[in-house]
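INPUT
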Amino acid sequence: MKVTINDVSMDFAPGTSVIDAVFAAGYDVPYFCSQEYMSPIGACRMCLARVGAPRKDREGNWILDEETGEPKIFYFPNMMATCTTQVMEGMVVDTLSDDVKRVQNGMVEFTLINHPLDCPVCDKGGACELQDRAYEYGTGESRFVFDKRHQEKHHPLSEVITLDRERCIHCKRCVRYFEEVPGDGVLDFIERGGHTYIGTLEDGLPSNFTGNITDICPVGALLDTTSRFRGRNWEYDHTRSTGMDDAGGSAIVIDARTGRIERIKGALNPEVNKTWIDDGTRFGHEYVDADDRLRSPLVRKDGELVPATWEEAAQVVRDRLGGLSGKDIGIALRADATLEEGVAAKALAEALGTGQLDHAPRPAASVVPQQAPATLTDLATADAIFVVGDVTEEVPIADLRIKDALKGVTPPEMMAHGVPIADLRLKEHPVFHRERLSVAAPYRVDLMKHAGRTASYPAGGEAALFAALQAIAEAQDAKAEDAEAAAVQLDDGQRAALGMSLADAEALVRGLREADNAVVVIGGFVLATRAAAAAAATFAKAVGAKQLILGPMANSYGLELLHVGPSHDRYAYPGMLEGARALILSNLDPAQDPDVRATLEQKDFLVVHDLFLTETAKIADVVLPARSVYERDGTTVNLEGRFLPLQAAPVDAGESEDFVGVVGALGDALGQRLEGRSVRSARRVLRKRFELDPAELGPSGELYRPKGRPAPRVSIRSDEAVGGNVLVTPSMLRVEYLERNPHLLALSGGSRLRVNPADAAQHGLGDGEAVSLRVGGVVRRARVRLDAGVPAGLMLLPTLPEQPVGLAHADLATLTRDERELEVAG
Amino acid sequence: MSVLDIAKGMGVTLGHLFKRPVTVQYPEQRATVQPRFRGRHHLLRHPDTGLEKCIGCSLCAAACPAYAIYVEADENDPENPTSAGERYAKIYEINMLRCIFCGFCEEACPTGAIVLGHEFELADFRYQDFVYAKPDMLVGTKGSKWQRREAEKKGKDVRLGFEAGPRPELEGVDY
Amino acid sequence: MVELETVPPFFADKQELLDEILGRYPEYGRRSAVMPLLREVQHAERYVSEARLAEIGEIVGMHATEVKGVMSFYSEYHGEPVGTYHLQVCSTLSCSLAGSDELYDYLVEKLGIVNGEVDAEGRFSLQKVECLGSCGSGPVIQVNDTYYERVSRSRCDALIEALSRDEVPEPWRARGGDNEGADKADFLMHTVAAGEGETR
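OUTPUT
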């Protein structure tokens, strides 16, 4: 449709909003309430412009201007809010005339009537939409001489979000955000007129995606408490990187000042996270600046760890490893290491001549789909989704993309100015098509609120679940071929494995099969055994669905693709801890298990590369300071196989190095030029291996599909069905760092042991009690949380890198009240 | 040029011999500075409540062309506030070696907390002594760091080597 | 979270009423039923508690905060218990010009309570509200559902006096139609007798 904006004529697709037409034409109108990926509602009235269009008469002919003979432009009698107006053929938009300026001036003045203008003390100052717009479009002075509205200045909406009710300009972005994006409405306007304020009846904000409202608030009303008064916006160094707390690969901006990370914000990646990030990613950065962070290498001299230089430490490593044969040395990385670090680790293993190389946690089954891999965009446009697991905790961003699919609005096309500001297809109070989503998990998971069908199968029964579904699919096949064939018959065991009624299961299978774009989301519980993962893949193939596999950590996919793995089954990480005589561990802390600690103490030589003096580091011979995920340059691969860039934020971390630096230093000591000695040299290897340039990745990253089938891999756990009385669940918050994240600790109340109330009564546990328990050997401290959604006889505990998702045995005799109360603020 | 012209010139020279000299025998004598002279900064307090005027907004640091100012803010303890409002400057430092005494900080300050005073005797020996923190600049502190050290050693009051007329912005500053 | 268990649900034994109210709206417009449901609760209990908000939210498919948002928009609903006589003083422009601010101050002084409060006996509660729609005859006080217009200081005294004795005086300036029991003929006679020119 041809639209004239001031002096520019352009063509737009029907349904485009006028505000997007104005921006696409290179002009500007101010706006506060419109927000990318959210419904436009025209609440702020800032985007007013003079809009007119030609009209047709009853015969369908254009009404012509008598003088010029051109179609006559009929202007709307008043200025129109461009965000809620659609373009029409021949429309004329005027954003520059004095009339338009006058009404925009007026709106700025009106918006500022009750705004306190405390910009100097406001954390939004310098990056504030209202400030910018008032400067650009305001008159510069107010005629309003009365007292302004007085309301609560710092109301803690939750432990991590502060609400300043005086600053609010009632744009309704936060209210709409909760309703439309995560789909759990919690905020709304209370009262009316000049007394209106944002409030909630809930205690806190019960969602995993609350922090995004601090990004979208156009004023300083909603602010991130972790960065409260930490710095002004122009003082921050903004580093765009990738969130490494989960396998989603959300784009983030790290704001650092004077060598400290002060806050993390979401960044735009239309293919992955749009602009949203979860609270774990946003608020879970405080550990980086913890006081007890290691800043220089430590070497054990006369039984004590003493500070040393990198050269000294590398010399010690060389001397001590020199006496060992290569195959006695084990190297293990945590699965959020970058690809570059993976290359470095492989080069080091090769130089030392060992096959004992692994990354952990690594599930039993592959995280790279063998066929029909789904992207997050596939997920967001799917018309049938079957989730097995707790996707909200595993890969939070996938949860939001599932909700996109439930809203049924495809991601918008990019325009000349980027993402459309007002996508008119999105509506306030969206209808979520729950029937498209089925969720199965051993316990009640958050996503079940939005699911049309839910199933609670017995924990550890993933293989049986998929086998039963497969049986249904086959029976339906038979029925389709021969109407006379028997109806679906399942025995009692299979029915129990389904965790839902047979009718539901049949509808689920039929729904997946009939959908044009079906996706099966395979979570960590399925990956815990190879049998279950194989059954899931078979089922997905049978119903013609794509697969999205939720890897346990940020770069699980990439490290598997690169094959940072052992040469033999028994050289895998758990075997390595037993068998190797010397170990190099990066960011892993296996000594939390006292038995493993005893084994490690017997090792000839132990090198630990970590951020803090962990249990394992305390018994190490050499401790090397590590860089956090925010301080690394490199590349990561998210769960869909997308290569994403990591940029190092300017953080003061002493002499910390990532594993690339470790290998560089060791290589120097060994007198070898190893392949992964620097990010550049590691990238040369990656370029050759993957035929894409990690240094040249665009902001959206690059989707990589392995040619042919990935190489077969060695398993990490045996395939026998694992039993247990504790289910280790995925966790959005990184439990290993929770105690060093004061705000998140206060928000979550610490690591949680979720117990069924009946079980709790039996064990004599009360809600909120601090306990310690040995789970699968690892000593865990947690707070008891009574939860009726937990099946009887099972306890739920969040995962650690050393404690992979799945069933584990806990000796309930070791269950004791924790003497040392977890420090919980508030 | 004639002899007469030379004589005229010599006359002017001779005339000055009988005038009072302009030179001040500083530091024995006190110098007089103009009221609008810009010297060492003062951080002011609200005269009635005694609370600091500075709210730690960092606008002075943003305005500073020499990057001489460093501010770190924090939240006031509501029971025992340092400044009026929610926010105060936890750390406020000016590097006097970098400072060019342009007065932009004073212009940028939304609360009138920072004002350039008249003190100019800032010479010192070590680099770190030129970084003036809050206690060195808050109202009530007289003299440069060195002058205060010297005065303490000798057990005397700080002697400033200048006189100045009053300046209305320097509310509460007493020379 | 709202503790629903502690209070028995209001609509549990009123299925018929519920069906009737929900039946007025199409299925996609179920949210519209929020107003009549709030009204039912307000009428029966004289205020709408948080538990009731959550219950109504559950019925119409809104979250409790949203229901509270709707409720707080209308001054006829109360989030806290109000007194036997709930005095609502209009504070919008016309009444304000006619002296409602002074009237409110007078009431504050007289009753010893301010906006949103209930007195110790639970007899009076006071609220400043936006326009009551009787702009031609301000200042207006609405006592429960009855309008008292052109409230002068002496009329206000008389009104409070009467209410203190639990007598509800007839509105002295009847407005045809709006007030229960107000007779049209009565109204006409009244205007003629008083010789006032205004009509509704």
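end of record. Chain B touches chain A at residues 55-59, 61-62, 72-75, 85-87, 110-111 (CB under 8 Å).
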